[in-house]
Amino acid sequence: MSSDFPENKMEPATEEPRSKSHAGLFAILGIGLVVALVMDGVLLVRSNHLTDQLAQNQDATQQQMTKLGDATTALLDQRLATLNEDISTQMKGAESSAANALRQARAQTQKQAEELRASLDQEQQQVSGELNDLKSAASAADNKLSAVSTDVDGVKTDVTGVKTDLSSTKDNLDKTTADLKRAMGDMGVMSGLIATNAKDLQALRELGDRNYTEFDLSKAQTQKKIGDVVLTLKKADPKHNRFTVLVNADDKLVEKKDRTINEPVQLYVHNSRQPYEIVVNQVKKDEVIGYIATPKVQLARQ
After folding, report:
1. Does the residue 255 lie in any domain?
2. CB 263 within 8 A of CB 186
3. Separation in Å, CA 107 to CA 4, 79, 98, 102, 117
4. What is the pLDDT of the chain when averaged over all its residues?
C-alpha cells in the first residue's frame, strides 16, 4: 500500500516542521509570559519599596521628580522640535518630488499629444490626397461616361439611319422585284425572274437566288467563254430585236435561232438540276448585250 501512494509519505514530513514551529512559538510565548510575570513581581516589590522610600523621603523625591519632569519636558520639546523639522523637511522633499513627477508627467503628456497631433495631421493630409485622387478619378470616369454616352447616342443615331436605309432599300427592292416578270423559256420551263435592264439585274443579285454574269457578244468574236458555256453570235437583227447564237456546253453544240430580247434561252448542263438561262436585253448591229443566270447549287441531274 505504501508503494501505491508515494505522495502520502510527504505529509508527516510537512506537518512535523509546522508542529515544531508552533511548539517553538508557544515556548517563546510561554517564556515571554513568565518573564512578564517575573517582571511584574519585581516591579511590584520595587513599587512597594519605592512607596516606602517615597513616604520617608517625600520632599527629596518630590524635588527629584520635579527636576526629572522638567528635564523630560525639555527633552520632549527638543525631540518634538527635531521631529517637526524632519517632518517639514520630508514634506518639502515629497512636495518637490511630487512637483518634479507632475512636471515630467505633463511634459510627457504634452509630447505624446504633439506626436499624436502630428500623426493625425499626416493621416488627414494623406486622406485628403486620396479623396482628391478619387474625385479626379470620378471626374475622369464621368467624362468618359459622358463621352461613351455621346458615342452610344451617335451609334444609336447611326443604327437608326441604317435601319431606315435598310427599310428603304427593302422597300425599293420589293418594289423592283414586283416589277420583275417571269417568262416561259424556249425549252418550256418557267424561268426565274427576268431582268430587262441594269437596275433589274442588280435587284436580282441582291435577292441572291442565282449567279448572274453579264456579257457583250459581237460577231467579230469567233466565240466567247462565259463560265462553263461558250457563245458564238451568228445573227443580230436590231429591227426585229431578234438574234441567233451557238451555245457550246458539255461538249455539245446547240443553235438557238431567231430568239427575241428578254426571252430566257435555256439549256441544261451535267452538274445542275435547273437550267442555265441566257437573256439578251439589247440587240444591236452585229452585237448583243445580256447576261447568263446560273444556279448557285450545282447538283447532278437525275
Report:
1. yes
2. yes
3. 66, 41, 14, 8, 15
4. 80
Neighbouring residues of 271: CB distance < 8 A, sequence distance ≥ 6:
298, 299, 300
Taken as a whole, the chain contains a residue count of 302
Whether residue 275 is contained in a domain is answered as: yes
In a domain, 39, yes or no: no
**What CATH number is associated with residue 214?**
2.60.98
Burial of 249 (0-12, 13-18, 19+ CB in 10 A): middle
Structural domain boundaries enclosing 237:
181-295
Q: How many separate domains does the chain show? A: 1
pLDDT the model gives residue 122: 81
Residue 273 to residue 293: CA distance in whole angstroms = 14
In a domain, 32, yes or no: no
State how far the alpha carbon of 128 is from the alpha carbons of 114, 133, 136, 243, in Å.
21, 9, 12, 92
* 302 contact partners, CB below 8 Å, separation of at least 6: 273
- Average pLDDT for 247-260: 93
Q: What's the pLDDT score for residue 100?
A: 87
pLDDT of residue 167: 65
Rounded CA separation 136/97 (Å): 58
Q: What is the pLDDT of residues 176-191, one digit of tens each?
A: 444 566 667 666 666 6
Instruction: Say how far apart CA 31 and CA 27 lie, in whole Å.
Output: 6
First to last CA, the chain: 117
- E strands within the chain? 181-184, 190-194, 210-218, 224-226, 229-237, 242-249, 252-260, 265-267, 276-284, 287-295
Residue 227 is classified by DSSP as T
Angstrom distance (rounded) from CA 247 to CA 284: 19
